[in-house]
Amino acid sequence: MQVLHYIHENIYDVEKLQAEHLAKEFAYAKTYLGSLFKEKMGIGLKEYISEHKMHLIEHRIKNSDLNFKEISYAFGFSDLSHFNKFFKTHKGISPSAYRKNTQNI
Length: 105
Description:
Elements: H1 2-9, H2 19-25, H3 30-41, H4 45-63, H5 68-74, H6 80-91, H7 95-103
């Protein structure tokens, strides 16, 4: 539960979500923390972080007028192309197509 809380509190800080940092923060070996998280949550640590981040990004796209550069910056992406690739990998469509589709509902 503490790890989940920490992830949720630091979802905008990419460095604090690195496995090495999390392991040090919670005084576990990196591999042990990863396997413990998967055992307890049924999902890998990195996958959980990506899914949680994706959920928050979807919410921002649907419910704000922020442009994609602002959203990508807020979530720690190094540039817009990385943000677009992350989004398309998880949703199968571009952020702009997603926004357009959700506005037509």
